[in-house]
From TrEMBL:
Organismal lineage: Eukaryota, Metazoa, Chordata, Craniata, Vertebrata
PANTHER family linked to this entry: MAESTRO HEAT-LIKE REPEAT-CONTAINING PROTEIN FAMILY MEMBER 2B, MAESTRO-RELATED HEAT DOMAIN-CONTAINING
MROH2B-like N-terminal HEAT-repeats domain ranges (all copies): 55-250
Keyword Acetylation in record: no
Protein name: Maestro heat-like repeat-containing protein family member 2B
Domain MROH2B-like HEAT-repeats: 254-919
UniProt xrefs under Pfam families: HEAT_Maestro (PF21047), HEAT_Maestro_2 (PF23210), HEAT_MROH2B_1st (PF23221)
SUPFAM superfamilies: ARM repeat (SSF48371)
Domain Maestro-like HEAT-repeats: 944-1011
Keyword DNA damage in record: no
Length: 1028
């Protein structure tokens, strides 16, 4: 007791001292009113102790309430009150009979709470009972001692010797399993208290106690437990208690060298408990505690012990039958982390060896553990990081998706540590490779749903790594620049372009700020640059423009590509900086807010090609332009046929050839595409046409000459035997070639300079188009009437494009085409040949468009010729069968849409043709004749024919109304006759016919109003039409 009194002041200074609250200067007297008295700590404790003494209410609940009071107020109690509480709690805690387990536990907890402010009094009480133990039921004394050591470790240190000595004298008397568990709890907590003191002894006010003092007290107990209790009990709770005591005592004995031999001898027993106990998490906690102490004492650990610990922990993580909880897995990983701090090389070597295991789970666990070691290794300077990277490299080609994911997680952790090491950054290449591999597998579409999801998850993880990549690490600019730049051009990395663009833009900015002097380079940087094949400036420009051409593909990479292009302007060519500073922001602004469905693809493509043209004009280097043409050709095979990217590449090649003034090179490239094209493939045919037409913008005569030479050689190419010629025709090779050349000629005409076209359009363009058309209609040299829809469409498209080109070349004057009547006859023949019972092809629609363009050229047709032309076109459209409602056929609206669209498009093309014919002679008399041609169909007995005729009539009258001022007429004579023709139709059986008849009358009224200078307001006519 004297020792307790002597240590009072020191102990309270460790745990916080109690001080009396300051007394107010007025002595606590109230000045205005006397508030209700607040119960003091002594009052509440006294009240509760009285309830215990009088045995009022639930005794366990009273103890719990008392515990809450003591925990909420650390004030000191009067001696009498304190003694009453300690006596009551001690009595109930040790009671053998008549007291429930719940009450005994609550009484023990009250003593622990009371020790916060009266530690020596509580400890005296417990030590007194320790020396007087004799009854087996007093195991709660041990339990409470364990709780005290757990809660007040440093305060318990002066009592370690006497407590452990008392335990030593009574170990032989322990008979029940309950008491054994309680004693083991004391051993565990008091050994841990000693370890805590050795770790933080400087925080204690009393003289330092050495390791030997603690070890000498624990050693006999350790020997007794090893000799008497290990392996003697089968009860799970006893095993767990012994395990906790052993781990704590082993950790304490590590502090003194003479006891370490016995500790290493018991390590196999500790690891063997993984096979003996049901709850293996307790084994892991004991092992992690032991390894923590081992790291603190900084002593070498035998290699075999490292192997044993690593094997035990690794097997717990990789055994799929055990499936530890997440908390337990974290504790197991923590054990490996602690072991690696003591002996990193042996630990990493063990994990490296496990990466060669046949077990997928073992490999995944090893990678997860290596990942756990990364951050600690980086915090300690990163000396062991190369060992970790070297180990992981051995499984980069592992086919398992789970292993691949673990490798990517390791890479992410490694790169997040901002390491300055070439070996670490080399794993970035694996991220790109894994992304590409997943893209290929997903594109094959032969995976199960689960496998496809795993590949998609791997892709997402790759992107996550690249998005979080920190390129701001000092000294990394020259290291990362060549490593990342090589992934811009290959198409398989398109999906990574958004994070890749960010990284390269940041690096480009750092390079510019540093003037390309970003510190010293590692030797690995120079070596990598020497062996890496970095993209050429032309390859970068070609690739980024192609990506921008499909801005929403690959996760929306178009914006990223343009921003990277602007950042790389200095790398691509020094002359483009000023131009791109204006042009690229304009392109980005155009894309802003434009979704894939809203974007005008043709206009966007035109803007990019114009950007390319401006760039090449700024660069003014023939060699550079030829290099760009070569790179564009090289990248062609990276994209699928008929893709937007491939179509843009062909147009960009044509643009580059147009910018190149080296005529022999341009000639050679044009011949290459004409000869190398597979004319059976649509994408290659269209691509060749784009190249030739693009080059014709600056090399019109050259392009025309090369195409003519190719066509002549094709006709001269011998094909032995009639059978071979017939076979070639059936395969379509010659026919597709002829069709491609027809379209090439018409596209050349569209792209040709205006001033150069008129001189060569008749004989060398239209003449060759007709020549190739006739050649396609021959077999064995004999002409026949073709039924090939594609051949018809090719000629129709060619005629339309040449007509547009001639119109454009004529400027304000009307263009002239001597082949006009021949071409019109051919097109009308196509229209007549179309079946009258269905829209089997778009021939009618396309022919109407072509006839409309052709009609605008000289020589003009007579009124009778135009009337006949109109009549033939109407006869091909009006008799088509009516469209049945989708509901009547049991079809959905979605199924009906493909049928309705060709009809609507054909009627729209007919309306454009009517407008073009009207413009041939913009007079009311010609309008009247056109309506007389329509009159037959307006009075048809078939309601769908009347409906179509009214639609055409409305289009015609609308066109005349818009152009009435241009006619120069002051009157509209046919007003009455037209009203008489159309008025009865407002009572038609079809609602659409009634509305269109009303629309026609509205046009007539407005035209009439213009002649009378009164006008008919739109809001007067439109409501009437809607009511019809």
């Amino acid at each position: 007791m004297r020792r307790l009194r002597a240590l009072r002041e020191g102990l309270f200074s460790c745990g916080g001292c109690w001080s009396r609250p300051p007394v107010p200067e007025d002595g606590g007297r109230a000045t205005e009113s006397v508030p209700a008295a607040v119960p003091t700590l002594a009052d509440r404790v006294t009240s509760l102790s009285n309830r215990l003494q009088d045995e009022e209410g639930d005794r366990a609940e009273t103890y719990r309430e008392l515990e809450r009071v003591l925990q909420g107020d650390d004030g000191r109690l009067q001696s009498a009150v304190l003694s009453r509480v300690i006596a009551a709690a001690s009595r109930d805690m040790r009671a053998a009979q008549g007291v429930t387990e719940d009450v005994r536990t609550a009484a023990s907890d009250v003593l622990v709470a009371l020790a916060s402010s009266h530690f020596d009094d509580v400890m005296y009480e417990l030590q007194r009972h320790m020396r007087a133990l004799g009854e087996i039921s007093e195991d709660f004394v041990f339990v409470t001692l364990g709780k005290l050591a757990s809660s007040y470790a440093l305060r318990c240190v002066p009592f370690v010797g006497m407590t452990l000595f008392a335990l030593q004298t009574m170990l032989s008397q322990v008979g029940s399993r309950r008491t054994l568990r309680a004693v083991c709890g004391v051993l565990e907590q008091w050994a841990k208290a000693a370890n805590t003191y050795l770790r933080h002894w400087e925080k204690c006010p009393f003289p330092r106690m050495g390791e030997a003092q603690f070890c000498s007290s624990v050693s006999p107990l350790f020997c007794h437990v090893v000799g008497s209790w290990l392996g003697c009990e089968e009860e799970e709770e006893v095993k767990q208690a012994v395990l906790g005591a052993m781990a704590a005592m082993m950790g304490l004995l590590l502090h003194e060298e003479k006891h370490r031999g016995r500790v290493w001898e018991q390590l196999p027993w500790l690891l063997g408990q993984y096979q003996q106990v049901q709850d293996t998490s307790r084994v892991t906690k004991g092992l992690s505690y032991f390894l923590e102490i081992l790291g603190e004492v900084k002593i070498p650990i035998p290699k075999k012990k490292v192997q044993a610990i690593s094997t035990a922990v690794h097997s717990q993580l990789s055994d799929e039958s055990k499936q530890p909880s997440e908390e337990h897995r974290s504790e197991l990983s923590y054990c490996v982390l602690l072991l690696a701090r003591v002996c990193p090389e042996h630990t990493v070597a063990f994990l490296h060896s496990q990466l060669g295991s046949r077990s997928e789970a073992a490999r995944v666990v090893s990678l997860d553990l290596l990942r756990a070691l990364v951050r600690s290794a980086a915090a300690e300077g990163g000396q062991s990081l190369p060992l970790l990277v070297q180990a992981v490299r051995t499984v980069l080609r592992d086919p398992s998706r789970k292993v691949a994911r673990a490798v990517l997680c390791f890479t992410k952790e490694l790169l997040s540590c901002s390491v300055q090491s070439c070996s670490a950054w080399d794993l970035v290449a694996h991220v790109f490779a894994r992304f590409s591999q997943a893209s290929v597998r997903l594109a094959q579409r032969n995976l199960s749903q689960a496998e496809a999801q795993e590949e998609a998850d791997l892709q997402a993880l790759c992107l996550d790594i690249l998005h979080s990549l920190d390129v701001s690490v000092r000294g990394m600019t020259k290291l990362l620049w060549p490593r990342l730049l090589q992934y811009v051009v290959p198409a398989q990395y398109t999906g990574t372009l958004v994070p890749l663009s960010r990284c390269l833009r940041e690096l480009a900015e750092r390079r510019e700020r540093a003037g390309h002097e970003d510190g010293e380079e590692e030797p690995g940087v120079v070596a990598f640059r020497d062996r890496a094949k970095l993209p050429t400036p032309q390859a970068l420009l070609a690739r980024l423009l192609v990506v921008a051409a499909a801005p929403h593909a690959g996760g929306g990479c178009g914006v990223a590509a343009l921003r990277l292009l602007q950042a790389l302007c200095g790398e691509i060519h020094g002359a483009v900086g000023t131009v791109w500073a204006v042009k690229i922001p304009f392109l980005l602004q155009y894309l802003e807010g434009e979704s894939e469905s809203c974007l005008d693809s043709a206009e966007w493509e035109r803007l990019l090609l114009e950007f390319l043209r401006t760039s090449l004009e700024t660069i003014k280097s023939q060699a550079w332009t030829m290099g760009l043409s070569f790179e564009l050709s090289q990248q062609m095979g990276s994209y699928p046929q008929l893709s937007r990217e491939q179509a843009f590449l062909y147009k960009a090649i044509g643009m580059s050839l147009a910018a190149c003034q080296h005529v022999p090179y341009v000639r050679g490239e044009l011949k290459k595409y004409l000869l190398g094209t597979n004319y059976l493939e649509e994408s290659e045919r269209e691509g060749m046409i784009s190249v030739v037409a693009g080059a014709a913008e600056s090399h019109f005569h050259l392009a025309l000459e090369v195409v003519q030479e190719f066509g002549a050689c094709m006709e001269e190419r011998p094909v032995s035997g009639a059978f071979n010629r017939l076979k070639e025709y059936q395969e379509g090779k010659r026919a597709w070639t002829h069709m491609a050349l027809m379209l090439a000629y018409s596209q050349i005409a569209l792209c040709a300079p205006r001033e150069q076209l008129p001189a060569r359009v008749e004989r060398e363009i239209v003449g060759h188009i007709l020549q190739h058309y006739r050649a396609s209609c021959q077999v064995l040299g004999f002409a026949f009437s073709t039924k090939d829809v594609q051949l018809k469409l090719s000629l129709i498209r060619s005629v339309a494009e040449v007509s547009r080109a001639v119109q454009g070349a004529g400027g304000s004057r009307r263009g002239e085409l001597c082949y006009k009547r021949e071409l019109l006859g051919t097109l009308l023949g196509f229209v007549k040949a179309e079946p009258r019972d269905c829209l089997a092809s778009p021939v009618r629609q396309e022919a109407f468009v072509a006839v409309g363009h052709l009609s605008k050229l000289k020589p003009s047709l007579t009124r009778e010729e135009n009337r006949n032309l109109l009549d033939q076109c109407l006869q091909s459209v009006m008799p088509l069968p009516a469209l049945e409602p989708a509901e009547e056929e049991g079809a959905t609206a979605a199924n009906a849409l493909p049928v309705q669209c060709p009809h609507a498009q054909t009627m729209g093309a007919l309306g454009e043709l009517l407008t073009a014919l009207l413009e041939e002679e913009l007079t009311s008399s010609w309008l009247t004749e056109m309506l007389h041609v329509l009159e037959y169909w307006l009075t048809s007995a078939k309601e769908w024919e009347r409906e179509r005729a009214l639609q055409a009539c409305a289009q015609l009258l609308g066109a005349y109304e818009e152009r009435f001022e241009l006619s120069g007429e002051n009157s509209f004579g046919p007003f009455g006759s037209m009203v008489g023709l159309l008025a009865p139709l407002v009572c038609d059986s079809l609602a659409t016919s009634r509305q269109r008849a009303g629309a026609c009358l509205g046009h007539l009224l407005r035209i009439r109003g213009k002649t009378l200078e009164t006008g008919a307001e739109e809001d007067e006519v439109q409501p009437l039409c809607q009511r019809l």
